[in-house]
Design goal:
The protein has 148 residues and is mainly β. Helix content is 5%, strand content 47%. It has one domain (2-143). The protein contains one helix and eleven strands, in the order E-E-E-E-E-E-H-E-E-E-E-E.
Length: 148
């Protein structure tokens, strides 16, 4: 489930369209790992909450099964999540990113009212992780339909 509103960033169009601006929507979100069909156990993306919720667990600590991510549409069928390394505990990095593959066990649906291009559902699968200095980036293939 998605809650909140995207941030907008203006980028210049390529040289073929001088003087025009493109708007790139970037969502800064709190991502809860796990399967939505397993009450957030397992692998994948269970919830995406925006704006970032600075919630802590009952013991006063940030839960280890979540991260802050920058989310954007890259192409019509790809959502890019840039997971902020400093927002994750070592256990989460090892568990969800340690193999170099991010596993999605069950589909994750973005609601239609979030992306103006329509609803997005991340497909189950094994997605390669592109490591960087500050981010772990995963490009998810999506489809414009609701899974039942």
């Amino acid at each position: 489930m998605i809650q909140g509103h995207p941030l907008e960033k203006k980028n210049s169009q390529p040289k073929g369209a001088p003087g025009k601006q493109a708007v790139e929507k970037i969502l800064v979100a709190d991502v809860l790992f796990g399967s939505p069909n397993k009450n957030c156990a397992g692998a994948g993306i269970c919830k995406v909450i925006a704006p970032v919720a600075q919630e802590t667990s009952p013991n006063g600590r940030w839960e280890c099964n979540r991260a802050i991510a920058l989310v954007k549409i890259d192409t019509s069928d790809t959502l890019v999540f840039q997971f902020v390394k400093h927002s994750m505990c070592r256990k989460a990095i090892s568990k969800y990113f340690g193999t170099g593959i991010f596993l999605v066990e069950d589909p994750f649906e973005f609601r239609q009212n979030f992306w103006s291009e329509g609803s997005r559902t991340i497909r189950p699968g094994a997605y390669p992780i592109a490591p960087g200095e500050d981010y772990l980036t995963v490009s998810f293939k999506t489809q414009n339909m609701i899974w039942e």
